[in-house]
Specification:
21 strands, five-stranded parallel beta sheet, binds cytidine-5'-monophosphate, elongated, Rossmann fold, 35% helix, 23% strand, alpha/beta, 398 residues, eight-stranded mixed beta sheet, 2 domains
Amino acid sequence: MLKNKNIILGVCGSIAAYKSAFLVRLLVKAGANVKVILTPDGANFITPLTLATLSKNPVYTQYFEEESGVWSNHVELGLWADLIIIAPISANTLAKLATGICDNLLTAVYLSAKCPVYVAPAMDLDMWKHESTQFNIDRITAFGNVVISPGSGELASGLFGEGRMAEPEEIVSFLDNSIKKLMPLFGKKVMVTAGPTYEAIDPVRFIGNHSSGKMGFAIADELAKLGADVTLVAGPSAQKSTEILNRVDVTSAEEMFEACNTFFENTFITVMCAAVADYKPKTIATHKIKKQEHNLVLELEKTIDILTSLGKRKKDNQILVGFALETNDEETYAKSKLEKKNLDLVILNSLNDKGAGFKSDTNKITIFNRALEKTVFELKSKTEVAKDICEAILKIIK
Ligand code: C5P
C-alpha cells in the first residue's frame, strides 16, 4: 500500500529518534518516497547524514541553508506529501500541533499539508500521563490527525510504563492498514474472469481463441489497487499479476462456470472479461485422433453462458459487468446483451477499431450503463482502460 506514496517523516527531539532510522528503511523498502524533516532538537539525537543516506533524499532541518541561502518551501513540501508521519513526536511538538504554533520547518509543513497526518508519541511516563499532554492528544485527534499510541516498557529514564514509541514495524503496518481502509473498495469481494477457454477435442488438441488475458488481468489489478479482495478466475494465459493473491486457474468453459458459481454468491462486483468458448466438442476422444484419408467432422454443442446464468442469480446489491466483442452492429448487440444478461455495465470493444481487442496492449472501449447512456473512450493502454472501467463501476456505487 505504501508503494510510490510520498511520505514526510518528521523527527523530533527524543531518544526514540534512533528508531527513525529503522522506520525510514522500512518505508523505503515498502516502495515509498521518503523525505525527512528534523526539528532543531531532533538533529541532536540523530544525524541528517544517517537519515539522508537511508531515505536517499536530502534531510530538511530549517527553512533555509545559512551559507547557500537555499530555501525549503514548506508549502510545496506539504503539498508533495501523500501522508505525514511524525515519529517520534515530542510533548513539545505535540503542543505546537495542538495550538497552531509554527516556529520551525516541521510545524510549518504540518500547517500547509492537506494529507492525513499520523503521530507516534515518545516521552517519559509522567510527561505522557500529564493532563496537558492528554489534552493535546485529544485536541489533535479532534483535528483529524491519527495518534499511533505508545507502548509500555522500560523507558530511557529508567521508569517503567507507557511512553515508548511504537516500534517501526508497528508504525509501518498501522500506516499500511490505514491506507487500505481509506480505499473505495476496501474489504469488498470482487471476481474477474480473464483469458480464453480451451475446449478439448482429444488429449492433445483443443478449440480455443486468441484472448491473451491482458484486459482481464489489468482490470483485476486495478480493482485490487482500489482495495478490493479480488478473485481472478483465469483461463490459460501467460499473464502474471503482482496484485492478485487469489487466482483460480481453469481450462474449459465448464471449469470456469464451476469456479464462478462458487465465488459469485459473496461477490459485490463481478467483471466477466474472459473470452469463453461458445461451443465445445460434444465428445472428447480418449485417444489422439489419428489422421484419416477423409475430412473429419466434429460435432459441437453449446457451452453454458456463464454471464447469463450469473445475471439470473444476481441480487440488487451485486454489480455485474460484461463485455461485448463485436464486428458488426456493435452498439445494437452491446445494448441487447446488457438487457438480456441483466448487466449493470457492458463494455463494448469492436474488432473494427485498430488497436482494440485480442493480444494488443491497447484497447478502445465504449461503455453502456443500465440507463443505456453511452461513454466513448479513446484508444488507450489496457491499464488505462482498466482504470476507466473501474471509474464507471465506482460511479454506480456512489
Ligand atoms: O454473448 P457473448 O459471448 O458475446 O457475451 C460476451 C460476454 O459474456 C463476456 O462478458 C463473456 O465473458 C461472457 N460469456 C460467458 N459465458 C459464455 C460466453 C460469454 O460468461 N459461454
